[in-house]
Amino acid sequence: MKRILFAALLSLPMCVEAQDMKLEWTRNFDENKVPAYTLPDPLLCENGMRVTTREQWEQYRRPELLRTVQTYMYGFIPELKHPLGFRVDTVNTAYQFQPGKKQKQYTRKMVSVFLTEKGERGPLVHAEVITPNDAQGPVPMFMMFAWSLNHGFPTQRLLENGYGVAVLNTFEGCPDGRNAFTEGVIAAYYEPGQTYRRPDEWGCLAAWGWEASRLLDYLQTDPAIDEHRVAILGHSRLGKAALWTAVQDERFAMAFPVNSGCGGAALSRRKFGETVWAMNRSFPYWVCDNNQQFNMREEFLPFDQHSVIALMAPRPVYLATGQDDAWADPLGEFLAGKAAEPVYALYGRAGIGCDKQPAVDVAMDKGYIAYHIRTGGHAILQYDWDRFIEYADRFLK
Ligand code: GCU
Questions:
Q1: Catalytic site residue from 112, 213, 236, 268
Q2: How many CA atoms lie within 13 A of 115 on its CB side?
Q3: Is the distance from the beta carbon of residue 268 to the nearest atom of ligand 1 less than 6 Å?
């Protein structure tokens, strides 16, 4: 016993050292240490055929690539057999931001969105839905993932610009932690007797997407809303979710993944900032378990995040990032956007529109893939909102 203890003590410094090296290696912020890599071609089918038309993309390659990304990254979602329903809890048709006679009035609804067939007896998520009363017809919408309903989005400004606003209280339907496997929508879909998540079953990012899709089911029933012009927006982990939501559910017309980084818009093969390993170590519940196979082995992923962006085609997607957000790898987000362009080209649609990463605060936002890196760090700032509204005006109005 003593001998074992002694041997263990002797090997301790080595373990610590190996651990440090690992940490050092997985937290690279030095462009010179980015490994050489080759990105898988999103247009190359597994059978070796290369897609050259949008029909081939839509009928063959897109479904194949989507399945691959589901299998190894975000996991499969349950099959939806019929709409799950909702309950409109409160309706205020004279809602005002600063109550007063001369202030504009809006319609504000609080909606309980059911996430399973159990209706209100199963997991649900609350959403706030506000639409302008003076609209000429059904309005385009900004749907947004929020950390709580007490969020800081510029709701009034969006409304004044002619958009409706729908906000999800995201973590209510699927907690952002290991308890996602015991509470909330993921656990609710376990089969009787199932006690663990199968390797290709959904994680939180896909589950949050499920919430957004179910809220969209509701929006489709609301005559004040144009269901064909709904954009989805999220920041950081919810930026990853926003991108994946719109990929999986093609009813979303546009996506704004903001500071989404690893597991969002940033290339994994660059191993810059947050790596697959770092994300999976801290947040193993965000993606499916199969993704763990790629910890520090990103080069073996059969796709990279440019493929995920490409799955948005031909719909507009805005990759927004910040100069001081190295953890989210702003250059990796640009390069991923660029590498998604060949798929948009099948539709004759322009992508970012420049070959080198643009300067700080220069928005490349005329094409169907937009990108900017603005002053500042990990947040949604005024600059972002200004660009997002312009972009939505360009493509949703
Ligand atoms: C962590 C995590 C990121 C994530 C961020 C957030 O930093 O590593 O992947 O985007 O949290 O959600 O704020």
A1: 236
A2: 27
A3: no
Per the listing, tokens 């099948």 go with 346
CB 166 near ligand 1, within 6 Å: no
Q: What is the pLDDT of residues 206-225, one digit of tens each?
A: 999 999 999 999 999 999 99
d(CA 345, ligand 1 centre) in Å? 32
Q: Is 237 in the pocket of ligand 1 (CB under 6 A)?
A: yes
Nearest ligand 1 atom to alpha carbon 235? 12
Amino acid at site 70: Q
Report the nearest-CA residue for atom 13 of ligand 1.
236
* Residue type (1 letter), 9: L
Q: What pLDDT sits at residue 195? A: 87
What is the reported pLDDT for 20? Answer: 46
Is 378 a catalytic site residue?
yes
The size of the chain, in residues, is 397
Considering only CA atoms, which of 137, 129, 140, 145 is closest in space to residue 86? 129
Question: Does the beta carbon of 322 sit less than 6 angstroms from any atom of ligand 1?
Answer: no
* Closest C-alpha to 357, from 38, 35, 26, 31: 31
Which run of H or E residues covers position 112? strand 106-114
Residue 89: CB atoms within 10 Å:
11
pTM of the full structure: 0.94
pLDDT digits (tens, 9 = 90+) for 105-136: 999 999 999 999 999 999 999 999 999 999 99
Please report how the helices 237-248 and 204-219 are oriented relative to each other, as an axis angle in degrees rounded to 10: 60
Residue type, 393: D
State the distance from the centre of ligand 1 to the C-alpha of 236, rounded, in angstroms. 6
Answer yes or no: 235 catalytic. no
pLDDT class of 23 with cuts at 50, 70, 90: low
